[in-house]
Write the structure tokens for this entry.
Amino acid sequence: MSDYKGRIGNLIRDARKHRGLTQSQLAELLGTSQSAINRIEKGHQNLSLEMLARIGSALDSEIVALGAGPTHLRVNGPTTLSGSIEVKTSKNAGVALLCASLLNRGRTTLRKVARIEEVNRLLEVLTSLGVQTRWLNDQNDLEIIPPADLDLAHINEEAARRTRSVIMFLGPLLHRSDSFELPYAGGCNLGTRTIEPHMSALRPFGLEVKATDGAYHASVNRAVEPGRPIVLTERGDSVTENALMAAALHTGTTVIRNASSNYMVQDLCFYLQKLGVRVDGIGTTTLSVTGVASIDVDVDYAPSEDPIEAMSLLAAAIVTKSSITITRVPIEFLELELAILEEMGFRYERSEEYRALNGETRLVDLTTHPSELHAPLDKIHPMPFPGLNIDNLPFFAVIAAVAEGQTLLHDWVYENRAIYLTELNKLGAQVKLLDPHRVMIEGPTRFSGAEVVCPPALRPAVVILLAMLASKGTSVLRSTYVIHRGYEDLAERLNQLGASIETFRDI
Ligand SMILES: CC(=O)N[C@H]1[C@@H](OP(=O)(O)OP(=O)(O)OC[C@H]2O[C@@H](n3ccc(=O)[nH]c3=O)[C@H](O)[C@@H]2O)O[C@H](CO)[C@@H](O)[C@@H]1O
Ligand SMILES: C=C(OP(=O)(O)O)C(=O)O
């Protein structure tokens, strides 16, 4: 019995850390004392079901759900990987296209969609609005049929709050309704992520949004139209997507300046073209969109492969000093990353280029060779595309940890992401946080197994998993929902390459 209480205490501690709360902060949310939380976490306290439910809701985590507790991974290392693995389509194009399907009154079929939790949350939201969605086969083809009228009053708030992508409903919805509400967007906990750029991009289409009581209250003034080019205040991916979607159903030509030309934006542009929207300037920072008054077509689109998953697999091969073949790598979105890796001494071969199913994106197969890496001469920092991808930066932390010498990583983008990289120290790395945006990494590292709770951010969580593959002994990575948010069957697929990763639950 006391063991049972201890296990529940551990679950609560993990969920609290995952939310980034101290014991005192959780106590405050529950109207109790820090010492009570301490007793609960140590398993020294009887808990009523009601208290468990309150803790669960304060931590946004179901503490006790029969057979459905959080999943953890047990990793036995060190591993050498071998064989071949195919890159899946991207999370970020997947979610953008799900939002964009709301522009179309006809049926959208998306091919080979990544079957990940972020997509599942958006599908739950779409279903709650009355959209019919259906997985068609084990190839992950997905059919989406919107209703004549969306049931915005019954939006699944719980699902919506767990993803940031719901913010991309603003662009399509402003054409469907004069006033509507959306719950606040979630996503990775990376510090404050402003939505103001979205507002200033959509204001020219008459959208006004007030954010109060946990919701965005949107109203649309149909008399307002973009009279001059829309200049994005940030070259963000989802803000560009929102502006594109708003422009798609605006008759006339809208010019969007300082647009992101990143991979998910390009996939959205190709999809819009299939819907009959004219988009010029794809791949550049000035997009010109000639919209149509209504869209009602049955359309089929295949988003491209995920450059971030490809980078994750490259990092897996590098830290485990393995030779593997990674197929369907969207090379045009990974060229800079590979150039830096080459400078660091990474050896690999690449095949001839071929096209993704969207007929546009250039793909290659890469075969990695075990390489002795050294630190790069200059610091590594991300930039909007064609710079080094912002979501790829964390993978350079674990790569730098196996390289000889000192590497400086500068994540100017996110307030809270670099700090999670210091979790690598639990496995023996030397990652020094210089300030909230910069880490200095000293290699090479002899990783050794440890227990780590997933940080509340997708990429840093995967980085820790990859270091565990290279760690001697057994490691445990707890509460892995955040990884499933962006990767399909990652552990199983790494196991097919020879890793030893077991998935388990506490209760
Ligand atoms: C669903 C989706 O597609 N998510 C991606 C998208 O999120 P998303 O488009 O939502 O990114 P954000 O709007 O949160 O931007 C990321 C951060 O960069 C800052 N910023 C961005 C652009 C800029 O020119 N200047 C600037 O300062 C923002 O203030 C923010 O702090 O883009 C991020 C940055 O590539 C990626 O990490 C996310 O994976
Ligand atoms: C930050 C990320 O995602 P999101 O925008 O969905 O939080 C990511 O993909 O690394």
User: Anything to note?
Assistant: Residues 351 and 365 are 5 Å apart (CA to CA). DSSP finds 17 helices and 23 strands in the chain. The first strand starts at residue 71 and ends at 77. Residues 2-18 form the longest helix (17 residues).
